[in-house]
């Protein structure tokens, strides 16, 4: 017989699976780990709108940042 903590873990996995399906349909590019972290932050009081804004801003910065290329020595150029 599964323990209560096993039931809670299973329920949490199912929630993340459902959120991942929704996330995929909405093309958010968030994986299960990202979603799990977002849920945890929101459960701990982070404003969901602020979190979404930060994620969007970080993605913009990441795509705008110049890409480092590696030379033969494995050093960035």
Automatic annotation (TrEMBL):
One Pfam family this sequence matches: MOZART1
UniProt GO BP: gamma-tubulin complex localization; microtubule nucleation by interphase microtubule organizing center; mitotic spindle assembly
Signal peptide: none
Location relative to the cell: Cytoplasm, Cytoskeleton, Microtubule organizing center, Spindle pole body
The UniProt record lists the keyword Acetylation: no
Keyword tags: Cytoplasm, Cytoskeleton
Top-rank lineage group of the source organism: Eukaryota
GO cellular component: gamma-tubulin ring complex; interphase microtubule organizing center; mitotic spindle pole body; spindle
InterPro entries (alphabetical): MZT1
Free-text function comment from the UniProt entry: Required for gamma-tubulin complex recruitment to the microtubule organizing center (MTOC).
Family stated for the protein in its record: Belongs to the MOZART1 family.
Subunit relationships: Part of the gamma-tubulin complex.
Name of this protein: Mitotic-spindle organizing protein 1
Source species: Aspergillus sergii
